[in-house]
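Example 3.2
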Amino acid sequence: MNIKIFLSFGFILISTTVLAQEKRGRARDFGIFTGILKTGSNNAITDVNGVSVGHTTLIKGDSVRTGVTAIVPHAGNLFQEKVPAAIYVGNGFGKSMGLSQIKELGNLETPILLTNTLNAPLVANALLDYMLALPGNENVRSVNAMVGETNDGGLNDIRGRHVKAEDVINALKNAKSGNVEEGNVGAGTGTEALGFKGGIGTSSRVLPKSKGGYTVGVLVQSNFGGVLQINGAPVGRELNNFYLMDKNKPYKADGSCMIIIATDAPLSDRNLERLAKRSYIAFGNVGAFSSNGSGDYAIAFSTYAKNRIFHQAKSATRNIDDLNNDEMSPLFMAVWEATEEALLNSLFMAQDLKGINGREVKALPIKKTLEILKKYKALEQNKLPMALEY
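Structure, written as tokens:
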């Protein structure tokens, strides 16, 4: 009886706490628009045809606040039908796995998994088991598992290495297209960014038909420091929450950011690397500066079917389609816009979270933020006249 009463009261207290929090939403739900290009139907990385995303979120007791996120480029056997891919390293303070082979060969042969720093080897091991068990891979003797990470040890018992093989498989098997969960989910469960609760964020952009009509989608795992800016407005400074503001106030500057970029444009790994580099412009736009301990990586891949790399190639040579250099600028704009909005979505969709040692990280206060944006005329910028034709 006492246990039931305790649980009942616990439920009431939890419910009251949730109701007291600000209503969360994506950046553009509050009139915050980034750039001039249109978004895809879901404004997510899954707007790139064939791409799916899955999460496993682990919130247990008072100290487990972590998870894993899977980004799957296509529904087939990715080892047998690899996709062109590239890496851009903004700051190499990271423990990601699989980067060097992608950089060397220019292709991706597993889904991309995101998790926390100390769980990266365990997640890679589970990903290897998953890939080796796929039909058609019975004789495979080498797989390059791609695992990215950020350090969520400020809220999570990171030394416990709580992400297990079944959590990885769950994220992979539940990966889906359409809407993508954001904020305190998957690999973003215990992350923090720019002085506030961080997490998973995503966005997409679609080019006008005159520029190819291609789609660029971005997903981020935000976990880094700086001075938050939104559409040029000094939000972090106005909220009195930013790096170096007070030597006596603890502020998390390190931690890392993973930026995953998908496109259906016909690109070689060379042009995918150029695309990945442009995402870093957006990283700075929101106020990040890549601190010494922030491992910041962009991984870009193309789903364009003709450019897939077959493990059992029938010819000694291959012909691919690759946009001319002069045609890349619209895609550069698209990845810049989508990355910036994905980073903002990770903040706006995150919620207050208390974790290990009772430490709590507050989410970005939306009401106060909107007041600051109004002050600096940084809202509803989509109402400015534009001449883009789709």
